[in-house]
Amino acid sequence: QVQLVESGGGLVQAGGSLRLSCAASGSIVSINAMGWYRQAPGKQLELVAAITSGSSTNYADSVKGRFTISRDNAKNTVYLQMNSLKPEDTAVYYCNVRGIPSGSFLRRDYWGKGTPVTVSS
To answer: How far is residue 19's CA from residue 57's CA, in Å, rounded to a whole number?
Structure first.
């Protein structure tokens, strides 16, 4: 019954910016990490950025310096600020949450349905 609600995707020109948001709600008692993945046409799913509950972050080399991930623990929400967008950033972006559901000691992964980002040249 955990739900992930994503927003912020869209169409932008090269050099523009977008901010993605993902809010987790439902029967979850602890979130260990949140992150964003993306899949471009003809390419594999790749990790873009991730952030732990302690605010430690990791970025793909291709986005480092341009993208910033952050989270609001009180709202169980993760954000991805994307600046200086390039056409190669075009992909469907998926929110991922790793946490422990209520009534369990087992960690699980939850996925959003994806939000498309298109960057025109």
So the answer is: 17
